[in-house]
Task: structure prediction
Amino acid sequence: MDAVMTNQCPSPPRAEIQVDVDAIRRNVALLAGLAAGSGAQTMAVVKADGYGHGATEVAAAALSAGASWIGVASVDEALALRAAGIKSKMFCWLHTVADDFASAVAAGVDLSVSSPRQLSSAVSAVRAAGREAMIHLKIDTGLTRNGCLPADWPALVEAAARAQADGAIEVAAVWSHLACADQPGHPSIDRQATRFDEAAKMAVDAGLQPLRHLANSAATLTRPDLHFDLVRPGIAVYGLNPVAGLSVPLRPAMTFRSSVSLVRRAPAGESVSYGHTWTTPAETTLALVPVGYADGVPRALSGRMRVWLAGRNRPVVGRVCMDQIVVDCGDDQVHEGDEVILFGPGDRGEPTAREWADAVGTIDYEIVTGMYRPRMRRRYLGDPCPGDTHAESDS
Ligand SMILES: *Cc1c(COP(=O)(O)O)cnc(C)c1O
Result:
């Protein structure tokens, strides 16, 4: 039942991100079910390497669980997914002036267009690619970040309709992004929805037949009336709930594990780690864990964090260093090689990414997205263990 417990590799990890692919599938099935209830399809957002979980693996899992589109920020991210064999409908929305639209069009990646300049880049790319470009026109309905301002919208729609009539592009969608969907009832949500309706209607009036998409995770969970034709959940795919106080059976997919590398007994009065910010009040057992801020443990958690070790949460004492933390285990029996959980889904009472985020004044998006680093091992539950050449595939 508990996949985390039954899928441990025998060799204790130094720093490991474990990704529960089943949890991702179940989260996507839940989201796609909500969308289907409104007649909408689901685009799983896997930008930033799948919020740290691995874009290709998450995309494959999401597509197997009811998503029919994959969304990423950049052309490069989209092309990497194509190279990895992801063949679904795919959309990217954040471009530099140098981005390779021709390769994107040739690879069948839909492009967002926020301005006449981006539209002409897309039209030029069509000549190079020898294939029609699928375009999603982005209206800025009030996030005031990317997108076309309402005042410039009629001209952009008209130019896009001309390019479509010329056979260069197809306007596949009109879309926008919400500013405050994680605060249900925030007045900006309805204001943005009204502007979105108006913008989509203008496109229809210009003879276009676009899909409409607006909802991120929060709106997918709380605003079925804003699902339109397609929803774009990101964070909820990974099992993190963006709406405070909303009860929804999502399961966090990421667990951050390490193991005890050294156990020592320390007498009373010994000060621990850089700056000597903590001193043993009595004789105690200290466990050294070989992860630090280079592995994504925020140094700002120094003196304020716990890890799950030998059956319960225990305080990390002294400073979080680049590569190491020290755990106070009192008089309990702990052993070198014991598993340490830095954060996980929380079922055993271990800390969660949300707890870290709250403690350092950020959101869990930033915690999980920042976790994957070059010296981190990332494992998918069900994968063979590293070095285990006898593992059989169970698929
Ligand atoms: C990141 C992103 C999403 C997903 O947002 P979540 O809050 O993670 O669900 C959807 N659309 C756009 C344009 C995004 O940038």
Summary: Residues 45, 47, 93, 177, 216-217, 232-236, 242 surround pyridoxal-5'-phosphate (CB under 6 Å). The longest strand covers residues 169-175. The chain has twelve helices and 19 strands. Residues 187-205 form the longest helix (19 residues).
